[in-house]
Amino acid sequence: MNAISRFFQRPIFYDKRLIFALWIGAALIAGISHIHKANNYQIFKHVFYHTIDQVNLYAEYPEQYFDTNHYGPLFSIIIAPFALLPDFLGIPLWEMVIAATLLIAIYKLPMSWKGKVIIYWIAMHEVYLNATNSQTNTLIAALVIGTFICIKSEKDFWAACFIMLGLFIKLYGIVGLAFFFFSRHKLKLIGYLILWGVIFFVLPMIISSPQFIVQSYADWYESLTLKNELNAGSIYQNVSALGMIQRVSGIQGLNLFILLPAFILFALQYIQVKAYNNPVYQYGLLASALMCIVLFSTGSENSTYIIAITGVALWFLIQKKPRSKYVIILFVFTLFVTLCAGSDIVPGFVRKEIIRPYSLKALPYLIVWLTLVYQLITFKKSSDKLSSLYFTESKGSE
Hints:
- It is built from 18 helices and no strands.
- It is an all-alpha fold.
- The protein has two domains: 14-228, no CATH class; 232-398, no CATH class.
- Residues 393-398 have low confidence and may be disordered.
- Helices cover 65% and strands 0% of the residues.
- The two termini are 15 Å apart.
């Protein structure tokens, strides 16, 4: 393990230009590779055109794409600049811009460059995987991290913007409220949330009509309700703790029995009130929130794990050195399963007949999350095993 660590200490692995080029390059290559088969992008693109034409955003349009749209009406404004371009330009540009949002969010985190480098290298494979499927998960992760950064720096106006933007795009942005108690201006934050909620509700009406947009929100609710029911029967959906537990046990209808304990555990993390200003605790809660988005959503897919892997990287960073054997084994196990689920490093049989049908990609993430929850709930006792080494603006070293 020490030999591997020394190998990755070489300066080339810390070169900013190389990392940024590989990160954006991965998204560009993925975008170019699926220009002629970008079904998800076609769904995104037509949210814009269907909003202009005022036709149901959530109906099936088999002549244009398969599956249906599950994004809010506001997404028509987000995708507009790309939808107006020909696909051979719009698709690669979309993938690069979406990847860049998370790249920038990580870069803006108040931590040492070395900490950011670790996150970049750990998450890079999932960035590529997300881009091959034209998903918005990197953007969602960026918005959650952006909310965290803005609340820490007392920029509640923009924190509220990121929360509501994520909410109106894909609901996941609501997780940004996990950092509400870190805000020193809670009443202002609530006011800004209402302000941005009104703005984002009204904004799509610029290219459509008030009546159509109001109806679209009702249609969106029905669409999400139906999708939640359909996810249980698809091995490509519900790649989460919910899906894993139900598929391994063979017992369906357990969502409530899983979500309720998960909610209680997440809430218990807040009992350490005196630790709210502790950067280790704060980053731990950020990591927990990023993993929760994926672990307890029926809409989680293989590519959604770009959000969760970022949380795992943050969890790894707060562990004090020398890290325990348990932490190292769990971390390596998580990376291994992540690669197995999204690449060809293992035989296709393992991926298609074992990992995918039982949603086993969620297993190591669930263990990491439960470990982190324990560390945060017992923060007063666990803090001697945690470290703030990376969480400064300076160039930390190990």
